[in-house]
Specification:
This protein is an alpha/beta fold and about 240 residues long. The protein has eight helices and ten strands. The strands form two sheets. Strands 6-7-8-3-9-10 form a six-stranded mixed sheet, sandwiched between helices. β7, α6 and β8 form a beta-alpha-beta unit. It is globular and about 45 Å long. The model has no long low-confidence stretch (mean pLDDT about 95).
Length: about 240
């Protein structure tokens, strides 16, 4: 039976020494939802995404991806996840083609050559496919990172500030790819400081403040704008 929730967290807590990064996040995200996650710097949104991506081990609670407990079966959970953060997890001494070939072998993707070429074309890197990644700008790193995220056709796409460093054309490309992923029934969680960009295609909006959820509602409801002013824009000076 297919799990009803793409992501289900129950009282997720994460502490670093005496600092509490997550103070008990309970969140159920249905398959096919597009969730925009907002919060000030240090609010806990990046930590939550890293926990969900199995990159950071949580201190307390349970989290399931497509019904799979990430602590009990992390490798199985990762096969459903595509994660993009400020660290693109690319090998700088390899070129884009070699990077994607490596990750295709890692995920066991059969006959990956055609998909790699398609993705390189989609992110505008076919002409740079043989250039070492170390020569790339931040924006080009992000473009290739997007291709890496989509390579194994994940059911859950986690994006932490994905628009950072992208030029206008790359932003349009990313938005088109996200729209296509959403139309195909993929579940998307995206963090950004840009309210309008985050709400552009989102179906749901969540605000995290000081490690806890303080708002959870329909992305089209005007209440999100008021909450954003309260917890993020006004909250900067608190």
């Amino acid at each position: 039976m297919i799990a009803p929730f793409a992501l289900e967290s129950d009282d997720i807590r994460k502490t670093f020494g005496h600092f509490t990064a997550l103070g008990g996040i309970t969140l159920k995200i249905r398959r096919g939802e597009f969730l925009a996650l907002f919060g000030r710097n240090g609010a806990g949104k990046t930590t939550f995404l890293k926990v969900a991506a199995t990159l950071v081990r949580h201190t307390h609670g349970k989290l399931r991806i497509e019904g799979i407990d990430i602590r009990e079966e992390p490798e199985q959970a990762r096969r459903h996840i595509g994660f993009l953060s400020h660290n693109t997890y690319l090998y700088r001494d390899l070129n884009p083609l070699e990077n994607l070939q490596f990750f295709s072998r890692l995920y066991g993707i059969p006959n990956a050559a055609a998909r790699i070429r398609l993705l390189l074309d989609r992110v505008g890197l076919n002409s740079r496919a043989s250039d070492p990644v170390r020569a790339f700008s931040r924006g080009l790193h992000q473009r290739l990172g997007i291709a890496r995220v989509m390579l194994h056709d994940p059911s859950l796409i986690l994006l932490d500030e994905p628009y950072t460093g992208l030029d206008a054309n790359a932003v349009d490309t990313l938005n088109q790819m996200l729209d296509e992923a959403a139309a195909a029934g993929k579940t998307i969680i995206l963090t950004t400081h840009d309210l309008d960009q985050g709400l552009r295609a989102a179906t749901r909006a969540v605000i995290i403040d000081r490690g806890k959820i303080v708002f959870d509602g329909d992305a089209k409801d005007q209440a999100i704008r008021k909450a954003y002013e309260t917890y993020i824009r006004v909250g900067v000076s608190r």
